[in-house]
Design a protein that fits this description.
With 347 residues, this protein is of the alpha/beta class. The protein is 32% helix and 15% strand. It has an eight-stranded parallel β-barrel, surrounded by eight helices. Helix 1 runs parallel beside helix 10, helix 4 (87-99) crosses helix 5 (111-120) and helix 6 (135-142) runs parallel beside helix 7 (161-170). The radius of gyration is 29 Å and the shape is elongated. It starts with 16 loop residues before the first strand and ends in a 25-residue tail after the last helix. The relative contact order is 0.12.
């Protein structure tokens, strides 16, 4: 499996990659995780993402639950203990993902976790928002030789220079993100995508979407995201820290369809006349015309000229440069001038 942000084929006409974030929504059950991998493939996603952590590596004695995790467990360690997958289980999920033509992405939370990823063979590495300012982890992820994608929730722009360097060097991306679970729509701040692109030219920019909405991915594409991440769950009402900020399989299918439609409509960032416009351009643009018949050899004056449709002759913008030129043949009035009706312009 080759990770490529810029795939383009008949089924996916524009270069936007969709990562399905399973995260910990498997509830610690590898069978649920496999089901969610297949649901991601059925929805048309490009990649599926999991997390690799061990509570003893991640949590100090003073670690505590975030507000959105309250009530999920007695303490942070107890919460994470019930949501872990082993390296062997992740390796099996990698095989399931690759069999479904999905790239396999994993988030480590410590350098030791990154070392474990080297034994799994992931296609890309994702760094969670809190670790966008964690150089030891960023550097350990970069050393794996895979694209590193870094979420930027809670971060100010001036905190992200090192993360941007890692994303640039590995062919990864910075992901605009709001670390609220779920993110209220008025707080989605999609303008952050443009802010990242301006601040870090040459770095791909995407959007890690924690809203409950199904159209924010499409809006992210319109805002300039080339990679999107959306959480998937088997049940939004299930007990667990991330289910409420996720979509169920049918929602993911609608989400991906909206992203593909937005990407196709966005098209190229170049501003040119498209094939769909050419007939209208030829019919509705105006050409230089003579106001009356004029004989061969006549030297044109401004009074001889007007502009009218269609745009099949000398373009209207060249009217003034026709003044002073001689006609090479008799030309009827009310007919667009052709370039060969005029003698060569002065050298």
């Amino acid at each position: 499996m080759t990770w490529d942000f810029h795939h383009a084929d008949a089924d996916r006409p524009a270069a936007v990659a969709v990562i399905t974030e399973v995260g910990v929504n498997h509830d610690g059950d590898p069978r649920k995780a496999e089901h969610l991998v297949r649901a991601a493939a059925d929805a048309g996603a490009d990649a599926v993402k999991f997390q690799l952590f061990r509570p003893d590596r991640l949590l100090s004695a003073e670690a505590r639950l975030a507000a959105y995790q309250d009530g999920q467990a007695d303490d942070a360690a107890a919460l994470l203990d019930q949501l872990t997958l082993t390296v062997d289980e992740l390796r099996g999920l990698r095989d399931t993902a690759h069999a479904a033509n999905l790239a396999f992405v994993v988030t480590p939370f410590s350098p030791a976790d990154a070392d474990d990823l080297a034994t799994i063979g992931v296609d890309a590495v994702k760094i969670a928002s809190p670790d966008a300012v964690n150089p030891p982890l960023l550097d350990a992820a970069a050393a794996l030789g895979r694209p590193v994608l870094v979420s930027t929730g809670t971060c100010d722009l001036d905190e992200l220079d090192h993360a941007a360097d890692v994303a640039r060097a590995t062919g990864g991306a910075l992901l605009h993100c709001v670390s609220a679970y779920p993110t209220p729509e008025p707080d989605a701040a999609l303008g952050g995508i443009a802010a990242l692109r301006r601040r870090f030219p040459g770095v791909r920019v995407g959007y890690s979407d924690h809203t409950a909405a199904l159209d924010t991915g499409a809006l992210g594409v319109a805002a300039g995201a080339c990679v999107l991440e959306k959480h998937l769950t088997h049940d939004r009402q299930a007990a667990g820290p991330d289910h409420a900020a996720s979509v169920e399989p049918d929602g993911l299918q609608a989400y991906v369809a909206a992203v593909r439609r937005a990407a196709a409509m966005l098209g190229s960032i170049a501003k040119t006349c498209s094939d769909a416009e050419r007939d209208v351009r030829d019919v509705s643009r105006q050409s230089v015309c003579l106001v009356a018949d004029r004989p061969a050899g006549h030297r044109l004056t401004a009074a001889d000229l007007t502009v009218k449709r269609p745009g099949s002759g000398v373009p209207a913008r060249q009217r003034d440069v026709c003044v002073g030129r001689r006609l090479t043949r008799d030309v009827a009035g009310d007919r667009p001038l052709r370039p060969d009706d005029l003698d060569p312009p002065p050298a």
